[in-house]
Write a structure and sequence with these properties.
It is a single chain. By secondary structure, the protein is mainly β. The chain has a 5-stranded mixed β-barrel with strand order 1-3-4-6-5. Strand 2 and strand 3 form a beta hairpin. It is elongated.
Length: about 160
Amino acid sequence: MDTTHCAVDGWVDTIPVPGPRDTVTFDLVVRPADIDALADDAPDTVVTCTSGDPRITHELLNDIQPGDLLRATGALVQSPVPGEPARLTVDALEVLDTGLIPVLRDMVMDRYGDYVVIFDADREKVPVFTALGQWVGEADTPDTIATLIDIHERVNGGDA
């Protein structure tokens, strides 16, 4: 694999998704500087990004929306498998421009004190995070969110 430290400017394609071990993953749609020289049907380049930096994770989970233009700086690894996207491990993030505020129809984020939950119309389980973006777990149903939060607080001594 070829690794390069670089900065990539691109638009956030979908809502950033929390991952394991306090990470977050998101896709950037990157267009080349010479876009006018390319054919109209030339595909955009998608760079899959991930970060474990708590500040970046918090910003991505709380402030970034699809359509935002970002500059992500970090280690870019090109996959040896043709057709797979490059992966960028982000160590610095800058918002260059914000997109229009999206209207979420199938997904709703809600706050339970120091916790955030995501209700998705396509899923029965409910992901739960702390307000700072730390993964707590998945409640089996909306009715079991309080139980999951209670267990998390007992295990962590009340720290959300």
